[in-house]
Amino acid sequence: MTKPLPIPAAADAVTFDFAKLSGRERYKLLIGAVVPRPIALVTTIGLDGIINAAPFSFFNCLSADPAILALGVEYKPSREQKDTGRNVRDTKAFTVNIVSDAILEAMNVCAVPFPSGVDELEQAGLSANAGRAVPCPWIAESPVAFECRHHSTLEIGTSREIILGEVVFAHIHSRVINLANLHIDPAKLDAVGRMGGHAYAPTRGAFDLKTMSVEAWEEFGIAANRRTAISP
Ligand SMILES: Cc1cc2nc3c(=O)[nH]c(=O)nc-3n(C[C@H](O)[C@H](O)[C@H](O)COP(=O)(O)O)c2cc1C
């Protein structure tokens, strides 16, 4: 049974051969199109004991068992590692703090390219809670924080490393989670995503669109394929 959706077909498309693009051009196409990206505000600690915090939107959850989070960390133009990459290499740990609307501007302070000795949490007015299993702190104001032990690093090229971490502890504000069913309320989490350029996207206004069974699709068709208010 054919059930066309009312989606306009593209009249024409421009095709890019990635082999012929510069790194900058590939970056622009990717960050403009792969949106919204979740933002990890990553806390680490150096061998000198100085805390570091920096946001990363080349970030995602890649596996639940084992629980693996991935970060794409660029090298500096000098080809040295950013403070985050260096600290993960040295201490084998990092913590991912989820960025909510309430801490978006504080996150932006953490993106300032301060010299290595500067504690970005102090600059941003964010509070550091001691980690349970890792030496790096988690951010008290962040609604969710995942302590990660370094799993592995993929050295994929000269411009960026991909760091994988295994989550060993999570800290979740009790107002955002229903402990009876482990449901995290997206409205209370109020996460913000990164778009291309300097743009951000709120998650307010999120809705449910349930995945249908074959039976529901065959019996109800587009009537089963409806957006609804998020169920608690
Ligand atoms: C929202 C946002 C997302 C970012 N995502 C990345 C990223 O995925 N990878 C990266 O290398 N830098 C990213 N940056 C830039 C780093 O946060 C910035 O270079 C930071 O100063 C690095 O800090 P560090 O040297 O303390 O690790 C992002 C910046 C912002 C504001």
The sequence of SSEs as H and E is HEEEEEHEHHEEEEEEHEEH
Major sheet: 7 strands, antiparallel
Q: What is the overall shape? A: globular
Portion in helices: 10-25%
Terminus-to-terminus distance = 34 Å
Give the overall pLDDT as a whole number: 94
Spatial strand order of the main sheet: 3-2-6-9-10-5-4
The level-1 CATH class? Mainly Beta
CATH architecture classification name: Roll
Kindly list the characteristics that best describe this protein.
19% helix; 6 helices; 232 residues; Pnp Oxidase, Chain A; three-stranded antiparallel beta sheet; binds flavin mononucleotide; single chain; alpha+beta; seven-stranded antiparallel beta sheet
Describe this structure in words.
The protein has 232 residues and is an alpha+beta fold. It has a single domain (18-205), classed as Pnp Oxidase, Chain A, CATH 2.30.110. Helices cover 19% and strands 31% of the residues. The chain has six helices and 14 strands. The chain has helices spanning 23-33, 83-91, 104-110, 120-124, 186-189, 214-220; strands spanning 37-38, 40-45, 51-56, 59-64, 67-74, 93-98, 128-129, 138-139, 144-155, 160-172, 177-178, 183-184, 192-194, 200-202. The strands form four sheets. The protein has a seven-stranded antiparallel sheet with strand order 3-2-6-9-10-5-4. Strands 1-13-14 form a three-stranded antiparallel sheet, with no helix packed on it. A two-stranded antiparallel sheet has the order 7-8. Strand 7 and strand 8 form a beta hairpin. The longest helix has 11 residues, at 23-33. The radius of gyration is 20 Å and the shape is globular. The two termini are 34 Å apart. The model has no long low-confidence stretch (mean pLDDT 94). Flavin mononucleotide (FMN) is lined by residues 39, 52, 54-58, 72-74, 82-84, 108, 111, 113, 194.
